[in-house]
From TrEMBL:
Pathway: Cofactor biosynthesis; (R)-pantothenate biosynthesis; (R)-pantothenate from (R)-pantoate and beta-alanine: step 1/1. It catalyses: (R)-pantoate + beta-alanine + ATP = (R)-pantothenate + AMP + diphosphate + H(+). It comes from the Bacteria. PANTHER family: CYTIDYLATE KINASE/PANTOATE-BETA-ALANINE LIGASE, PANTOATE--BETA-ALANINE LIGASE. Its EC number is 6.3.2.1. CDD domains: PanC (cd00560). Catalyzes the condensation of pantoate with beta-alanine in an ATP-dependent reaction via a pantoyl-adenylate intermediate. SUPFAM superfamilies: Nucleotidylyl transferase. This is Pantothenate synthetase. It comes from Metabacillus lacus. Belongs to the pantothenate synthetase family.
Length: 282
């Protein structure tokens, strides 16, 4: 596996792959890889001749109260983990390489941002869309892989690909979980021992909501109330949001019908955790 740090080097390798007739799978990340990322890489490897993983901590998606400098980084560890899953190339550019001075142009996302995490992270998805636009143009992958743990990001990437006519196919991979159901996340290490015991209740609460819908509940408010009550009873965390929305449009619904997302975000002492379930009911 090779690591390149410049766009010119990356384009040379991609040109080589194309001349060889190789298909390219792409996994964009901010590094500090965990099992969720590794599932994306292994999925890409199973479906493509070559797999490119980008590792870039994107400053444009950090808000004023979010510490870009404190974001965890360990490129050597990431290289080793990515190689074990079959990655062929790591693209690890500097900020200066990706943003040569003050940006001339950025991407503004107008839909699917005023809900879930987007409500409290103004400008975050503009930063995500801007860096992905750059990366999709540079890599021109056949298929790009994202995890459904951040289902809002997947919905926004889907809209970005459709609206800007990128030729890449979006592949959304199901959330990787611990044995007790907790969604895998680098933030889980910040939980106290007692919080770690409580955290699986997030997925259990969402599963309760899904069960109510499967049993015929059609009122979104009743589902949200049940999920909220479960979390309040079984965890010490504060609830950021519990939402039941259409998916991928992320609009409120008056009645349960069609493709939906039931999502939650909760705040423990030093960790904010998100999780979701998508479902389709007629």
């Amino acid at each position: 596996m090779k690591t390149v740090e410049t766009i010119a080097e990356l384009k040379n390798k991609i040109s080589q792959y194309r001349q060889e007739g190789r298909s390219i799978g792409f996994v964009p990340t901010m590094g500090y890889l965990h099992e969720g990322h590794l599932k994306l890489i292994s999925s890409a490897k199973s479906e493509n001749d070559r797999v490119i993983v980008s590792i870039f901590v994107n400053p444009l998606q950090f808000g004023p109260n979010e510490d870009f400098d404190a974001y965890p980084r360990n490129l050597d560890r990431d290289r080793e983990l990515a190689a074990e899953q079959g990655a062929d190339l790591i693209f690890a550019p500097s900020v200066k390489e990706m943003y040569r001075g003050e940006p001339f142009a950025t991407v503004n996302v107008h839909k699917r941002t005023n809900a879930l995490c987007g409500k409290s992270r103004e400008g975050h998805f503009d930063g995500v869309a801007t860096v992905l636009t750059k990366l999709f143009h540079i890599v021109a992958p056949d298929t790009s892989y994202f995890g459904m743990k951040d289902a809002q990001q997947v919905a926004i990437v889907e809209g970005l690909i459709e609206d800007l006519y990128f030729s890449t196919e979006l592949r959304a991979i199901e959330t990787v979980r611990e044995e007790d159901g907790l969604a895998k996340s680098s933030r889980n290490v910040n939980l106290t021992e007692n919080e770690r015991k409580e955290a699986p209740s997030i997925y259990r609460a969402l599963s309760l909501g899904k069960q109510l819908i499967d049993e015929g509940e059609k009122d979104p408010d009743e589902v949200v109330k049940a999920v909220t009550a479960y979390l309040q009873t079984h965890t010490s965390a504060s609830i950021d949001y519990i939402s039941l929305l259409s998916y991928p449009s992320l609009e409120p619904v008056d009645r349960i019908n069609g493709k939906l997302i039931l999502a939650a975000a909760v705040k423990f002492t030093k960790a904010r955790l998100i999780d979701n379930i998508t479902l389709n009911h007629q």
